[in-house]
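Good morning,

Attaching, inline, the backbone tokens for the sequence recovery test we're adding to the shared suite. The designed sequence is right after.
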């Protein structure tokens, strides 16, 4: 028997017994720890949320089956529609900013000038900072006696403090600014990777033909990084619908005056937590938020497919 035949039959070249033949389930042993983690912390919580959404469960007691009552209640709840409107408005403002501004920033930091690495690090610093720390810094900057209002009063721009944190609309805008500021560096890295794949010959040929920087940006750079723009748009839309920390840190536990700046995740927390927390109702709102997020995710996927075709 040749060495090759011995190896094929499981025998070692030296005549001893080799490793047993690998069975079909062997690869799954390596996947098992990860699959268990996903099942325990992703699949089961989702399934449990779906089940609870059809019950009147509370924090300290189980609940009975109530059918679609929680969903009917949500659709007739003014607080739900205010939170939904705030979440959609948040998405409509934040997503275009996080699609366009990081791209412009990535183009700027690709310029080969001395010290540009320092600027790249500075722009990325908010990304690695804790969201709580970032929120506290901006709270200090935007409060009535904070940095911005102090500067405005010294310059004579305003006579009364601007209610950045005490007006629901201004609070929502302030939270959007914090989200955009924190996300600029993160998505800038995405665009830097995409710009690295743009052939330099295209830009050079356009420059030889007399195209200026702005024309080259819109005619060459933007079409080449369009798939990345769609990806950034999808990711930032999902993040915008899940925003919570910025509203909580800037507006407190109430979500601004009268809860006027609450988003859907904020409403879910208010409804579901506490000794009287309505777990079933909060689960129903969570499922509605999931469906809203799914719609925008599928829309982004459809746009990317259309772009590829």
């Amino acid at each position: 028997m040749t060495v090759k035949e011995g190896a094929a039959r499981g025998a070692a070249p030296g005549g001893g017994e080799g490793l047993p033949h690998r069975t079909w389930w062997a690869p799954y042993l390596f996947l098992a720890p990860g699959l268990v983690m996903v099942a325990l912390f992703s699949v089961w919580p989702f399934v449990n949320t779906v089940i609870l959404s059809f019950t009147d469960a509370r924090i300290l007691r189980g609940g009975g089956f109530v059918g679609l009552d929680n969903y009917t209640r949500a659709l007739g709840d003014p607080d739900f529609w205010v939170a939904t409107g705030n979440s959609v408005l948040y998405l409509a403002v934040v997503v275009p900013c996080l699609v366009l501004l990081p791209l412009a920033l990535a183009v700027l930091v690709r310029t080969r000038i001395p010290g540009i690495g320092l600027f790249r690090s500075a722009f990325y610093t908010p990304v690695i900072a804790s969201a709580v720390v970032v929120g506290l810094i901006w709270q200090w900057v935007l409060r009535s006696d904070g940095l911005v209002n102090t500067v405005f009063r010294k310059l004579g721009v305003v006579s009364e403090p601007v209610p950045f944190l005490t007006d629901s609309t201004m609070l929502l805008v302030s939270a959007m600014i914090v989200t955009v500021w924190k996300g600029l560096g993160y998505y800038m890295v995405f665009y830097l990777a995409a710009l690295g794949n743009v052939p330099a010959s295209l830009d050079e040929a356009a420059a030889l033909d007399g195209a200026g920087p702005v024309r080259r940006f819109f005619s060459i750079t933007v079409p080449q990084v369009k798939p990345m723009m769609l990806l950034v748009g999808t990711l930032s839309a999902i993040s915008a619908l899940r925003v919570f920390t910025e509203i909580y840190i800037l507006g407190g536990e109430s979500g601004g005056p009268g809860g006027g700046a609450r988003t859907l995740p904020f409403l879910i927390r208010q409804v579901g937590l506490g000794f009287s927390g309505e777990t079933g109702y909060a689960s129903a709102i969570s499922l509605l938020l999931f469906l809203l997020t799914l719609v925008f995710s599928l829309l982004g996927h459809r746009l990317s497919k259309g772009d590829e075709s």
